[in-house]
């Protein structure tokens, strides 16, 4: 591992509070608190944080503790700087299935944990957070521990797809990785991959209340085999799937789910919301 990556991992693991916002950021935080940090103003606020030298920020929002990497992770930046609740509609849609005694949420492409942490707070009893990218994985585990949710959120460091070792193209920073897009700025690493059905069986999961999947254009390779081969009893009741990279799909997996009996409940600019009967 390169020295810069080792340095980032050490920085991630410092005690909570080491990166608490200072008085100098009060105005930036006030803009977000007043409800006006949106659009171009939000982007300006984010730039000011970064110009002031912030990389990691220890931040609590809506009762959830985060160690945010605002320099390298778009989701983390929005959690800190936006007046809006990030992906509020998606969270609320998935959360409606979280009140049951055996409610289970599966987070495919968990990133640093925003969905998993939010839905744990909403009442899900069991959460499986799947994230293979090493630097992102480290911060995900840290965020789970910061909130004392180790007994609720199980973190699994694998890719979802065909079984075996697969190439994974990483920039070495959070949010900068892909199964599909090698480039001059990425380095290839090899990571384990397992089919979703096998992952669920390994974790003892036999029913899924809600599932979110966001894996940068690889959603079809993860889900299509699952819906073709897994028993219907294992299919999630509600699904949010990122489909803004569907031009990279080999199979239109949203269309496949519709053929399997799902209903398209809502379509946003980046995500499709689907539901099936229990």
TrEMBL record:
Biological process, per Gene Ontology: methylation
Alphabetized GO MF terms: methyltransferase activity
Keyword Transferase tagged: yes
UniProt-listed SUPFAM superfamilies: S-adenosyl-L-methionine-dependent methyltransferases
Gene3D superfamilies associated with the record: Vaccinia Virus protein VP39
Domain of life (superkingdom): Bacteria
InterPro entries, sorted: FkbM_mtfrase (IPR006342), SAM-dependent_MTase (IPR052514), SAM-dependent_MTases_sf (IPR029063)
Keyword list, A-Z: Methyltransferase, Transferase
Methyltransferase FkbM domain segment(s): 107-264
Protein name listed in UniProt: FkbM family methyltransferase
Organism this protein belongs to: Methylotuvimicrobium buryatense (Methylomicrobium buryatense)
